[in-house]
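Sequence in, structure out.
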Amino acid sequence: MPHQITPFFPKVLLILATTLLTACYSVRVVNRDAIYRQVTPSGNGFYADREVHTLDTVIRSKSWQQFWLQEKPCGDCGFYSVEYLNTLGGSLRYFFTIGSRRTIRIKYVCATK
């Protein structure tokens, strides 16, 4: 007699696939009125000729507001663009720490005067 798949197994696979597909995303905000700092082109895409800064960090979920108020890397010129990236590893850390810590990657490009 062939082995039958229980109805529970496909539901678990569907939930797992949905979680993994939504775990990786990025959000980019661009200031259209600013001018970015240029560097020698190295590659293609959005960041090809821009001076990109990357910040990989683990923050507590309750400290979002404190994090943004303390970090002012571009000085008075401000940001040209900011991109927030959430990865599968960040989502897994968030899950296993019961929502207290999150791993994030932030890419930003400073504006010029």
